[in-house]
Amino acid sequence: MKLGEKLRYLRLVEGTLRGLEREMTQAEVSRTLRRELGESISQAYLSQIESGARPHMTNKTRMLLARFFKVHPGYLVSDPDGFHTELTSHVLSLENKLDLWLVQGAERFRRDPEISRALLAVARHADSRRCLMLMRGILETPNLAERLLQVLRPEISQPPPPLRKRRERRPS
Asked: What CA–CA distances, in Å, run from 28 to 23, 33, 79, 98, 103?
């Protein structure tokens, strides 16, 4: 993952954790940095980092952003090709790890807004673990998911039309 992608991802996580239900804007990050940490980074500088126009940042900027987003400063570099990293910390509770995993999933499925919003809704819930246990119970109860869909989301509860099978031609 490139540095710019990581910064955009961190803005999404931070916005979700702060209850904004969206990513923080670059300007919001800049203002909040100044208000909470007494130091600032301009919105234009953040934009250059995210766009890739500035592929590296100063150590001072890296340390400031690491403090703000509560990540290790080493996270704020571009990963080599093929390198995989998870944004996790031993300090995070199990619930926070689950929420972070759900937010990561929402980001991965951002091209499918319904799935992305559903994952973010579970992550924002006060007890996301219980939400998932409830979902398991719903899916394990025969026909309950279909009945709930009919009541809660009738527009999507209609089954897709059956696929028509092609008739095989018999040789004469």
From this structure: 10, 8, 26, 26, 20
Total count of residues recorded for the chain? 172
**Helices (H) then strands (E): counts for the chain:** 8, 0
Quick one: pLDDT at residue 96?
73
Q: Going from the first residue of the chain to its last (172 residues), give the mean pLDDT of each consecutive group of 10, the final group possibly shorter.
A: 85 85 91 93 92 88 90 80 53 67 83 85 84 90 87 72 56 56
Kindly tell me the sign of the dihedral angle through the C-alpha atoms of 9, 14, 15, 16: positive
Give the per-residue pLDDT at 156: 74
Chain centroid to CA 29: how far?
17
Round to whole Å and give the CA distance between 161 and 69. 47
| Six token digits for residue 114 | 């319904």
3-class secondary structure, 69: helix
Q: Which residues contact 13 (CB under 8 A, 6 or more apart)?
A: 69, 87, 100, 103
Residue position matching structure tokens 């209609």: 158
From its phi and psi, is residue 92 left (phi > 0), alpha (psi between -120 and 50) or beta?
Answer: beta
Q: Which amino acid is at 10?
A: L
Q: How far apart are CA 112 and CA 1, in angstroms?
A: 21
List, as own/partner pairs, every contact residues 20-25 make where C-beta atoms lie below 8 angstroms and the sequence separation is at least 24, other chains included: 21/120, 21/124
